[in-house]
Amino acid sequence: MVSDPGPALPHPLPGAIGLSHLSAYDWEAADGVCGGSPHLHLVCTEAYVVTGGRGAVQTLSPDGYRDIPLEPGSVAWFTPGTVHRMVQGGDLRITVLMQNNGLPEAGDAVFTFPPEVLADPEAYAAAATLPPGTGVDAEKAARRRRDLAVEGYLALREALTAGDGGPYREFQRAAARLVRDKVPHWRELWRAGALAAAARTGAQLDALATGGDDYLADATAHRTGPTRLGGFGMCGRRDEYALPGTTLPYEGK
Length: 253
Description:
- The chain is an alpha+beta fold.
- It has a single domain (15-210, 224-237), classed as Jelly Rolls, CATH 2.60.120.10.
- The chain has helices at 115-118, 121-128, 136-161, 166-179, 183-192, 194-209; strands at residues 18-24, 39-40, 46-61, 64-70, 75-78, 83-98, 110-111, 226-232, 236-241.
- Strands 1, 3, 4, 5, 6, 8 and 9 form a 7-stranded antiparallel sheet that branches. The chain has a two-stranded antiparallel sheet with strand order 2-7.
- A hairpin with a 3-residue loop joins strand 8 and strand 9 (236-241).
- The protein is globular, with a radius of gyration of 19 Å.
- The two termini are 35 Å apart.
- The model is unreliable at 247-253 (pLDDT under 50).
């Protein structure tokens, strides 16, 4: 039996997912690769649906290091704990589908900063936070953040490709420590969003099984558009949408 999920979000997207559009950064990093800031999510699976251009997503996981090509029509997704880095290959454009809408906005992402930054929550917050807006100062801060994440990422990748998974696993542990205090709030968002959406489906199935269809009288349609265009995110310039459950400034993509 599903426990009481609490108050439900009004009319979320299917499965209470999050949605955004990304144009991958074309800034060159220290290793000569153009792209975004490597990071992982703690409790959200993320999917890329490629709508234009070319590129790749580099991942670190217990599977090792992978470089997954991206082209129009490709779909790539990665589970919690997978470090991922979007790579620009030419006009790469992606629609991002994110599990548990609201959790990424509440901080379910940790950059691959070097260990000394991860060990200090104040230093981490200072490095991860961008000034508001889309001006020159925000762009400079986003590039500094990306470069610091790439610095830590390259060390993790080098160790993992050499057969040493210790630094990668320690990064996962450090990420978990950084977000632990946020878990009660995340649980509230999950209960009101993804869990409530699943519970509604269960209630509808129960109604249909017993001859009830009154809930169909609430059928309706919705439309929305981007509320911010070209914001500086983790992976690239991000078009954001105001969806049920997304109530905080986005700390991720």
